[in-house]
Write a structure and sequence with these properties.
Order of helices and strands: EEEEEHEEEEEHEEEEEHEEEE
Strand content: 25-35%
Structural class: mainly beta
Helix content: under 10%
Number of helices: 3
Length: 288
């Protein structure tokens, strides 16, 4: 990949904090992991192509009884819609030390007596080492503080937000609402952005169908406290993705997790996506 201007160390080029830009427009990628004054300029049409979609397997078209994920067609695009129910599942965040960087490596690390996984997904934006750039809590241990900074990229398209929970109570709040109202440390938490749906209304800066189209994944929490995760089968706009959470999942609040690198592990269907290196992972396990 040819770089037009390099003002940042090469290792930070793997920053997954925003989608790839549209062809023809230059983009400035700013390091939002804490260092200041370092950035890289690239021509969008020289950016690396997105990773291909996972190859469907026969099991993906089946209807396993214990799969929490189902294909849903919405506005002529197939979304994989996975539902975590507090009555049946527990949610936790996983990073690894060193970071797993893939669902496959996380899967291989699990002992034989580990709880069954309903599904897992990448869950939040990260720096070149796979470490979260926003609030991150794993097993009640805070590994990254809340990020309220201004900046560029999807993460900083405010309001961004936090998906978090303790026990079987899971919520999504805007970052500022979380900062103002949440005092106790949750069992798990991940910060990402932008918010997709806020109190039933689509994020004011998300257009109905903008030109940026990517394979995307996100999460929303409905009025009954169930967490709805979705990943698209092909590239979609932010607007279409947000409408899925508002109109199909019916989640008053929903949070964008990432795009292009979006990946899903659904053991019941034999699906294990392999894309670019990942960062934080959200894992939904059966309670039994």
């Amino acid at each position: 990949m040819k770089r037009v201007t390099i003002l940042l160390a090469t290792s930070l080029l793997s920053l997954a904090a925003c989608d790839e830009p549209q062809a023809g427009d230059p983009v400035i990628r700013t390091d939002i992991s804490g260092e200041k004054g370092k950035e890289v300029a690239m021509k969008a049409d020289e950016a690396p192509p997105p990773s291909p979609s996972p190859t469907p397997t026969p099991s993906e078209t089946a209807q396993p009884e214990d799969s929490a994920c189902q294909p849903v067609r919405f506005e002529d695009v197939v979304f994989t819609h996975c539902v975590a129910d507090p009555a049946e599942h527990r949610v936790r965040m996983v990073l690894g030390s060193p970071t797993f960087r893939s669902l496959a490596k996380f899967s291989a690390s699990r002992p034989d007596n580990a709880p069954r996984v309903a599904f897992a997904m990448n869950a939040g934006m990260y720096d070149g080492e796979g470490k979260p750039i926003g609030y991150y809590v794993e097993e009640r241990e805070r590994l990254q503080e809340l990020n309220r900074n201004d900046g560029s990229g999807n993460f900083h398209l405010k309001p961004n937000g936090v998906f978090y929970g303790t026990g079987g109570t899971w919520r999504i709040k805007t970052t500022e609402d979380f900062y103002s109202t949440v005092g106790d440390r949750p069992d798990f938490g991940t910060q990402s952005g932008p918010m997709l749906v806020i109190d039933g209304v689509i994020h004011p800066k998300i257009s109905e169908d903008g030109p940026s189209k990517r394979i995307r994944n996100g999460v929303g929490v409905d009025a009954d406290g169930k967490a709805h995760f979705a990943i698209t089968a092909r590239p979609v706009s932010f607007g279409q993705f947000a409408r899925f959470f508002r109109d199909v999942a019916k989640t008053p609040n929903a949070l964008y997790l990432d795009g292009t690198v979006s990946s899903l592990w659904d053991p019941a269907r034999g699906r294990m996506d392999t894309r670019a290196d990942l960062g934080p992972l959200v894992v939904v396990e059966f309670k039994d």
